[in-house]
Amino acid sequence: MILKRTYVIFALVSMLFLAACGGNNEANSNNEASENNNSNQSSENGAADEDKNYAEMGETFELIGYYSDEPMDVTVNDITIEKKEDHKEYIEEIYGDLDDTDSIALIDMTVVNKGETDIGYGDFIPQFSGMNTEVDVTYPEHETLATGDDPYDEVIEPGEELHFVGSTILIEPAMEYSSVLLFNGYEADEGPFVYTVPQSEHKTPVGTYGLEEEVFPVDHGDEGGLGVTFHDVYTEESVDEMDNEGLEGEELTYLAMDVTFENTTDEAISYDYAVPSVRTGNIENILLDQGRSADRIVPKDGEAFWSYDEDIQPGEKLEATIYAGVEKGKEDEAIISYFPYSMAISESTTINIDPN
């Protein structure tokens, strides 16, 4: 998988911000995560569960307009992925070269104005997080707008219902598996958001997993994924080529994680997507090297390397130890997490590893 450097850098910066600002939320076990996914399904009237900050596909949830402060009912009815060749003219007009894209996501939505004043389109147009771009509500199907019209000139009147099928051009394989639709300021922790592929269809739903349980920080659906199995987690006082001083001068020790990586896709994937973030509460413990995550990988057989320097090839399997710095004395507080949802990094969208 050829990954755009822009998205890699942004995702890492976002993780740094979260680690500095986010707290340690109490995670559920893998079984509990599955139970929660089942209990969060739509009720008989299709309304979203108020206790969660995301909606399932087909659920109706209330959204308060970011600008209008008016309530509306929003339903993401369906999301389908179609071949880029079937939308050649549109993609070339909007994005340019068809060869630089992978596919197109079609988002079927219904919005009802439940307020007393007009609601502008800017209050409900979602962001497709993996592409960091707003959904184009004018293509391929809209009741009144033609492709290329400015939707921000339009409003929904009180009581009016709007149905449309919008789109987002995808530049990499299986981006729908690493994306969500974000509303209202585009912050996942603010909610609500909608997974572009339901959690029930993911190899690893968000939640907490233990040792010897394979997790997939990269999921390509039927085309495989990047699996990681954690066998053991322990500490080392020092690691070759890694400093023992953190970003703020704190003394570091190193969390060692014995793992097995396996790439079952037909794409090369950066090891940056295979290594987790390691945090201790509000303390930042991700080391930097030229703006990238400095996670050291030492294969069982072979030479050590930095995660950002190497790709795991299609069909490749590797036994190795990952090293990540933690503040000395806080090793027992370490939180091992993956953030598989691009541009939507929050405590509610993580895959956590329980080393105990």
UniProtKB/TrEMBL annotation:
Write out the ranges of the annotated region (Disordered): 29-48
Coiled coil regions, renumbered to chain: none
Task: Output compositional bias ranges, type Low complexity.
Answer: 29-46
> Mind telling me which InterPro entries this protein's record contains?
Immunoprotect_excell_Ig-like
Q: Which UniProt keywords apply?
A: Signal
Signal sequence span is 1-19
Top-rank taxon of the source lineage equals: Bacteria
Q: What is this protein called?
A: DUF4352 domain-containing protein
